Amino acid sequence: MMPCHNLYYSSDHCFVADFDKVISPISVAHFSQHKLVDLLLKKLEGIGFQTYLPDEIGSSTQDLVLENKILMGHECSSIQLTDDGILVGASFNNAGRMQERKIHCGLLLGADGARSTVRELAGINMKGQKDLQKLVSVHFLSRDLGKYLSRERPGMLFFIFNPDAVGVLVAHDLEHGEFVLQIPFYPPQQMFEDFSTKVCEEIIVKLVGWEPTDVQVLDIKPWAMHAEVAEKYIGCNNRIILVGDAAHRFPPAGGFGMNTGVQDAHNLAWKLCLLQNGVASTSIIQTYESERQPVAHFNTELSVENFKAAMSIPATLGLDPTVANSVHQVINSSLGSIIPRNLQKTLLEGLFSIGRAQLSDYVLNEKNPLGSSRLARLKSILDEGKSLQLQFPAEDLGFRYELGALDAEDCAEATCEAERQKHSKRSREYVPSAKVGSRLPHMLMRALSTSNEGVFSTLDLVSGDKPEFALIIAPLKESYDLARAMLKIADELKLSAKICVIWPQGSVDAKVRGSRSELAPWTNYVDVEEIPRASVNSWWETCQINRKSVILVRPDEHIAWRTESDRVKDADSEIRRVFSNVLCLATTIQ
């Protein structure tokens, strides 16, 4: 939504497919980070973890052994490589005095955000564009504002431009009146210390256009917008691994930061588990970088493009951010050493005030040729969807790993290059694919031969509770042969695996019971029935493959291997070769 003085434009970013759950079993959602953290902590507590504040575990600075403990109020302050891992220094506040306790670990995951201390201590550099914009983030509550917006202008994201102030208002929860306001600022003329609670409250009033009576500022923080990716995700002899914002920093345009970070964790978790259990080779950790880093580079570029598209709105209204940045640079370079900072600040804010005058009624009206032209361009940008985009299903769901913990498909070089070019094209349309490296496509299924009448997604065929591989087949003899071989080899490797047999809609119980005899003596299988949408005949058609196909799905729901069962001559040898590649084992499993 784009409030502009007494003008108001809105744009709907929700698709029909979201509510019909065509491409995913879950609709798109706006979910703030602190709520996600609370959700994750509750989940961890539910599986036996406990949270501790510094005073709850004492002030001992000796080596601390942790098991199922989450230390709150601690920050990584030092790292030291040892013969069998890393000795981590964790600083904490003890009665107003900072202390450090030592924690020994085999691997250290740096998931400590965009200004990662772990990354800095590991000596890993970031590459890309720095300091695209400096901002002040104001987290505040106001039920008055929430009620007003719910009634008059419901929305999630508000870009506000008026003669008095400019800012972006994020509505995290209209019902409870929770907001975050982003305000651009330009140091050293404007300093973070200038943004006191009182000043921020005044800016809120200027942006809203009226004075809510219950504004409560909870937090004020400065931050810088970057578009960077870590030069490597793994360092210090494979002992340190970067995850989330510690590995990549994007402009907040499109939700790529949280989505990419969650994908990082999803990719890494099962690999760490299999490594710790002695099932996978240590080389599997390197596949985390080879799979995830290209996705981060792609999303960095896309988020920058999306940020520039968002800035086309103020530029059209006469408030080009690039001009503001240029003015700021000129003041810094030519006047910084000549006139005092207070005078520089007065000059800068005076120039910005003149710039915001472009948003006055005198300029922005249909009778003013300049204003009329700007309003027409603004309407065109919004109508054609050329401003900020909030949904990227092709990128969020359709990314594909090309090199890593998978058995790549054989294809001619020209065909592979054509596929890479197709993948790199900017498209908001998600096309389901069962190619190796792709995420398993979604379709609703129903379990057969059970009392459970409920429906679920193909994505739920993959266990969420343990690192388990799933082999998806149609009820064909050759496919059953491969399935038995897969279960036997997985058992030898002490690897959790199951078979998912997809039957056509309307299959009768007598036929379905055939899986029991075909897969005996193994019992870790499930028979499911397709529930295709009207426009699709079957799940295999959705995946653009035939029923002879066999698909091995990794614990992170990405496809590790695909073949056609009638092409496999020796099922045991083929399955051993595939697991050798996926688990990064040095030699073929004998």
Q: For the residues shown, what is the average pLDDT?
A: 87
Q: Number of helical segments?
A: 17
Tell me the radius of gyration.
Answer: 28 Å
**How widely separated are the two ends?**
61 Å
What is the number of beta strands? 23
Task: Describe this protein's structure.
- By secondary structure, this protein is of the alpha+beta class.
- Helix content is 35%, strand content 23%.
- It has helices at 16-20, 33-46, 117-121, 143-152, 197-208, 256-276, 284-316, 321-335, 341-356, 369-383, 393-397, 413-424, 477-492, 509-512, 514-519, 539-542, 571-582, and strands at residues 2-4, 7-9, 50-52, 69-71, 75-82, 85-94, 97-105, 108-110, 126-141, 157-161, 166-173, 178-184, 216-230, 234-235, 240-242, 248-249, 444-447, 455-457, 469-473, 497-503, 525-530, 549-553, 559-564.
- A seven-stranded mixed sheet has the order 18-17-21-20-19-22-23, with helices on one face. A six-stranded antiparallel sheet has the order 10-11-12-9-13-16.
- Strand 19, helix 13 and strand 20 form a beta-alpha-beta unit.
- Helix 6 (256-276) runs antiparallel to helix 7 and helix 13 (477-492) packs across helix 17 (571-582).
- The termini are far apart.
- The model is unreliable at 411-419 and 421-425 (pLDDT under 50).
How is the secondary structure organized here?
Layout: E1 2-4, E2 7-9, H1 16-20, H2 33-46, E3 50-52, E4 69-71, E5 75-82, E6 85-94, E7 97-105, E8 108-110, H3 117-121, E9 126-141, H4 143-152, E10 157-161, E11 166-173, E12 178-184, H5 197-208, E13 216-230, E14 234-235, E15 240-242, E16 248-249, H6 256-276, H7 284-316, H8 321-335, H9 341-356, H10 369-383, H11 393-397, H12 413-424, E17 444-447, E18 455-457, E19 469-473, H13 477-492, E20 497-503, H14 509-512, H15 514-519, E21 525-530, H16 539-542, E22 549-553, E23 559-564, H17 571-582
Parallel strand pairs: 3-4, 8-15, 19-20, 20-21
Antiparallel strand pairs: 1-2, 5-6, 6-7, 9-12, 9-13, 10-11, 11-12, 13-16, 14-15, 17-18, 17-21, 19-22, 22-23
Helix pairs in contact: 6-7, 13-17
